[in-house]
Amino acid sequence: MPEHHDDSEYVDAIRDGNHATTDIADYVGVKRQSAYERLHAMEERELVEKETVGNSLYWTVDED
Predict the structure, then answer these.
(1) Exposure of 64 by Cβ count < 10 A (0-12 exposed, 13-18 middle, 19+ buried)?
(2) Which pLDDT belongs to residue 3?
(3) Which residue stretches of the chain have pLDDT < 50?
(4) Is the distance from CB of 14 to CB of 24 less than 8 angstroms?
(5) Is the pTM above the cut of 0.70?
(6) What is the DSSP string of 5-64?
(7) Which residues form the Transcription regulator TrmB N-terminal domain (predicted)?
(8) Is residue 43 included in any domain, yes or no?
(9) Which of 1, 7, 24, 48 has its CA 20 to 30 A from that of 40?
(10) Within a 10 A sphere around the Cβ of 4, how many other Cβ atoms?
(11) What is the pLDDT of residue 62?
């Protein structure tokens, strides 16, 4: 049975200084692809934003 992680865990990862998809995945305890899919869904709901830096994605949270 797959583990379920709340969006808040991903937001916490970003707020704790993890901005790369791989770092966020490690923080939450999921595979990189799973983290990317969740972050992408969160971006569509405007919970996070992404920026491409070189070949990497840099995820941020609007603190307003």
Answers:
(1) exposed
(2) 60
(3) 1
(4) yes
(5) yes
(6) --HHHHHHHHHTT--BHHHHHHHHTS-HHHHHHHHHHHHHTTS-EEEEETTEEEEE----
(7) 14-62
(8) yes
(9) 1
(10) 6
(11) 82
Tokens 């869904």 -> residue: 41
Please give the tally of structural domains in the chain.
1
Structure tokens at 59: 């995820």
* CATH number of domain containing 48: 1.10.10.10
Q: Is residue 1 part of a domain?
A: no
What the block records as the tokens of 25 is: 């995945």
Provide the CA 26 distance to its chain's centre, in angstroms: 10
Residue that the structure tokens 């709340």 belong to: 6
Q: How many CB atoms lie within 10 A of CB 29?
A: 11
